[in-house]
Design a protein that fits this description.
Elements lengths: L5 H29 L3 H28 L9 H15 L4 H32 L3 H40 L1
Helix pairs in contact: 1-2, 1-3, 1-4, 2-5, 3-4, 4-5
Length: about 170
């Protein structure tokens, strides 16, 4: 990788995001299967459909930038998904595991929000308006997914998990 210009940074960022989303396409079905709360399963399943569209958008962004999307591995996402896999493999009660899955998913969303925000800014600064619009569309979806996860966490899932703590005392 060579970073001699902001355009280089943008193209590497978009390629990294392409890897991010493709890794997530593989991880979200496992997270959905592991979730106990129906609303959490639903959020993971719905976000999988969005994520597949995000991969297509990133392919369009790469075409506009004249770069190949493949060939880069996002190691940050690899680590975040590994943390989620540890939760999936853990033994325990359904509500606390769901709370932990939400936490893992929100770490992923926050990473994506930061990465898309930076890439969108690079594209805008370079006058790559179409690329910036594609990235903004996904940034909006990632923020909405994070809000959905927060709503579930503040609702029944964490309350159920907290109730399990009362039983331990």
């Amino acid at each position: 990788m060579t970073l001699n210009s902001l355009r280089d940074v943008l193209t590497e960022s978009v390629r990294d995001l392409y890897s991010t989303e493709n890794q997530l396409v593989k991880a979200l079905p496992r997270m959905a299967r592991a979730a106990a709360a129906p609303e959490l399963k639903s959020v993971f399943t719905e976000h999988l459909a969005e994520t597949k569209e995000q991969v297509k958008r990133l392919g369009q962004a790469c075409a506009l930038l004249g770069v190949k999307p493949k060939g880069k591995t996002c190691h940050a996402m690899k680590g975040l998904i590994a943390e989620g896999a540890e939760i999936i493999a853990a033994r325990g009660e359904p509500a606390p595991k769901d709370a932990a899955l939400i936490s893992a998913a929100q770490k992923i969303e926050h990473y994506e929000i930061a990465a898309y925000g930076a890439a969108r800014t690079f594209a805008a600064l370079l006058g790559e308006d179409e690329v910036a619009e594609l990235l903004q569309a996904t940034l909006d979806e990632e923020a909405a997914a994070d809000e959905n996860l927060t709503a579930i966490a503040e609702g029944v899932v964490n309350l159920d998990a907290a109730g399990d703590d009362d039983e331990d005392e």
